[in-house]
Amino acid sequence: DAVGWNFAKEMDKSRYGTTSEISPTGDNATGDNLENLYEIYIKSNPDYTGNITTPVFYDAEKSKIVTNESWDIIRYMDRAFLPGENALITYSLYPDEMKQGIDDVGMWVQNGINNAVYKVGLARSQKAYEDAVKNVFAFLDELENLLATKRYLNQNDRLTVADLQLIPSLLRFDDVYYLLFKCSKRRLSSYWNITNYLRELYQLSGVADTVDMKQIKDHYYTTFTSANPNKVVPKGSSLATFSKPHDRSIKFSSHKRSGDPAVAVQEDPSSAAAKRAKGEWVRGVSQQRRWVTRDGSGDNELPAEKGRYHLYIANNCPWCHRTMMARALLGLEDAVSVDVLFYRRDPDNGWQFLPSDDKLHQDEIDNRKNLFEGKVNEIDSLNGLKYAPEIYKMVGSKEKSVPILFDKKTNTIVNNESAEIIRMFATGFTKFHKKGAPNLYPEGMEMEIDELNAWIYPMINNGAYKAGFNSKQELYEKAFDTYFEAFDRLDGILKEKRFLTGDFPTEADVRLFPTIVRHDPVYYIRFKLNKAMVLDYPNIDRWLKDMWNLDGVQQATNLDHCVRGYFGRTGNNLIPLSSNGQWY
To answer: What SS3 class is residue 24?
Structure first.
């Protein structure tokens, strides 16, 4: 109307409440109890004749509007105000060295979607509307591709103000712009990477508290009457989907932000060469990253089908072990078939199926029945291959690692990142889970599990390898200290809980177990992690035994292969014995 933005009346307060920081309020800034926003503009500048817009950044002491440009406001807040004591992010969102790049991306966001959706919704002709729609979805297609390779807009591991400029439009898209503005070519929820990016940002501490979808919808559907003359507000909403699990943390590198609940999967590959030059061991990055979901309806997704997928593993590899653990705990043996490779790699060809006797040690030949029969495949059962790199060669990759999740229907690799494979088994194959199978990634516990994974992976899972394979004394000692600091932290958690999150095992326990079960028989000696054994930590020791006795865990664990795989290919090849022939 002619007055424009106004402060809350009693009816507004009763409709939207008064307890939230974003509940409508009266004029709390001027002391004059003004009713309309334009009065603040006139109070600040009696000669003002421009548009009356929000937001407004107001200096109450000088009775002046500092700025009414959101672009400036978020930059002022970052530059002029120190983070609060409970701030999730304590670094600058607009650092000097990134200003130009952030501004460039911010302008791309502003033109590509923030303003562009209004050109769609307020178009005066069919041609103008169609041109504007085309531009919006060209932007979204480009954004989808960008977010496939970057966690955030400017930098893989760092939020910036450019992300803050984008999020409001994404939050409104399906509920408002798709319906009201007729940006109806495609819902935002059909974009896999954008959807997961939106979920991650929405789930950051405090962000959800700034979103009141009822206010948002009421405003748009009762204000833009050219598009909605009867002012009826749609009942449905996509808001609840923003809280669903996302794949961003597991898709990208390990957490680097204070308080980041990322699921650590891999190290930042950008610094790998420099680290290796200094003698630090750095794990490679898995490249095959398609997902199996319940229905396979999203981009780059495949549907879960019984008997369609096949797993290649080696028992000594802890990353393979976690996939076999999840498969066994969930009862997916009939749904996902498996080939087991030999525990010792060929020096020229990498992971291999069971080699001929001339490549075996004499004690392995003597113990062939116990070690190999029914436990190691002589050849790739699907394609008749002898080495894991040959499987990768089928898809044009030079990778060599296991595990590999393979699609028998299309004869191609799906995924070779163990953290993602166990997440798929837990969330994508639910209709094939056995009765009574644990829920490894239950709704409402995602953040707690991800936060555990975020420090357990770099400090314990990968930390053991840092100690074992670093070639400099000081790097070994640093990894050694970090590993046992994590053990102390772990023992404290397990003093209060049977499993890491409570009374039942979750993904966090599955990811932890392969490292802990290897510590006493392997890592204590082989990686020189000899400060203490698991049995010296009463709570970790008790947890390990509880895990060991879960249905399926022992069947998914071959400690003979573990010990032989680590010790049988280095030094004098002697295999250490336990005091009683059994480790647990």
So the answer is: coil
Tokens standing for residue 308: 């369609």
pLDDT band per the 50, 70, 90 thresholds, residue 564: very high
Q: Do residues 349 and 447 touch, judged by C-beta distance below 8 A?
A: no
For the stretch 47-86, pLDDT in tens is 988 888 899 999 999 999 999 998 899 888 887 876 666 6
Hey, which residues are catalytic here? 317, 465
Residues 86 and 81: their CA atoms lie apart, in Å, by 14
CB 368 within 8 A of CB 461: no
Q: Give the 3-state secondary structure of residue 209.
A: helix
**Token match 């770099």: residue?**
458
The answer to whether 426 touches 323, Cβ cutoff 8 Å, is: no
Q: Show the 3-state SS of 352-365.
A: ECCCCHHHCCHHHH
Give residue for tokens 């009457």. Answer: 225
Cis omega (within 30 of 0) on the bond before 355? no
pTM of the model: 0.59
| Beta carbons of 308 and 407 less than 8 angstroms apart | yes
Interatomic CA distance for residues 16 and 212, integer angstroms:
9
DSSP state letters, 255-318: P-STT------S--GGGHHHHHHTT---------B-EEESS--STTEEE--TTTEEEEEETT-H
* CA neighbor of 452 nearest in space, from 505, 389, 400: 505
C-alpha distances in Å from residue 122, one per residue of 1, 182, 226, 234: 17, 10, 8, 19
Which residue would you say has higher pLDDT here, 262 or 274? 274
In our burial notation (b when 16+ CB lie closer than 10 A, e otherwise), range 53-82 reads eeebebeeeeeebeebebeeebbeebeeee
C-alpha pair distances (Å), 238 with each of 141, 173, 231, 242: 20, 9, 20, 7
